[in-house]
């Protein structure tokens, strides 16, 4: 049996157009920048099925957490998401003085902003970083971090 291809292709195209418009509404740059990865320390690894996540931050942030001090402005946290041994994407959080004021209170995550970068370090403009914030808001008592509580045990070997 021959399946008529054209109407399906057209339907597919218009669906793609609808989705693209939807994404563009949410696409956003934030203040979070891509950091110099060689200045960061890999303090923990999280494995989820086929995904291996290396989580890293600055030596100054590690010291701050160990000394129960606030994490300094200018700090990056990066989650490097590896799939099949290759970088699939980078999730970045960066803290900046007064950056929380960019968002209303319901969305705010302290002074942290978020971004999703592809391996070529361009941002994923299809992502709405409000989603990152809404999940990380649950960690408001822990600097909006899920793995910050591992830092006090870190002594040079990434904690698994
Ligand atoms: C559904 C909840 C959820 C969403 C949405 C989410 N995260 Fe996370 N994030 C986590 C969890 C849980 C971890 C801890 C690592 C793990 O368990 O995989 C984490 C870890 C991180 C870390 C490492 C620091 C830390 O908190 O431990 C960064 C950086 C990060 N996420 C950035 C992002 C960015 C950027 C986005 C949006 C593009 C995002 N996250 C969306 C739940 C979420």
TrEMBL record:
InterPro entries: Cytochrome_P460 (IPR032033), Cytochrome_P460_sp (IPR038142). Gene3D superfamilies: Cytochrome P460. Keywords: Signal. Residues 43-147 form the Cytochrome P460 domain. Residues 1-27 form the signal peptide. This is Cytochrome P460 domain-containing protein.
């Amino acid at each position: 049996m021959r399946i008529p291809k054209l109407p399906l292709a057209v339907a597919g195209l218009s669906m793609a157009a609808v989705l693209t418009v939807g994404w563009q509404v949410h696409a956003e740059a934030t203040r979070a920048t891509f950091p110099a990865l060689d200045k960061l320390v890999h303090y923990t690894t999280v494995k989820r099925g086929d995904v291996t996540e290396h989580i890293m931050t600055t030596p100054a942030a590690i010291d701050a957490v160990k000394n129960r001090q606030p994490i300094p402005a200018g700090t990056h946290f990066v989650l490097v998401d590896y799939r099949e041994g290759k970088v699939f994407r980078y999730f970045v959080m960066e803290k900046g003085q007064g950056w929380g004021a960019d968002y209303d209170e319901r969305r705010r995550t302290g002074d942290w902003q978020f971004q999703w970068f592809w391996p070529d370090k361009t941002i994923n403009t299809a992502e709405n970083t409000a989603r990152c914030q809404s999940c990380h808001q649950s960690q408001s008592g822990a600097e909006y971090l899920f793995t910050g509580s591992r830092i006090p045990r870190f002594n040079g070997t990434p904690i698994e």
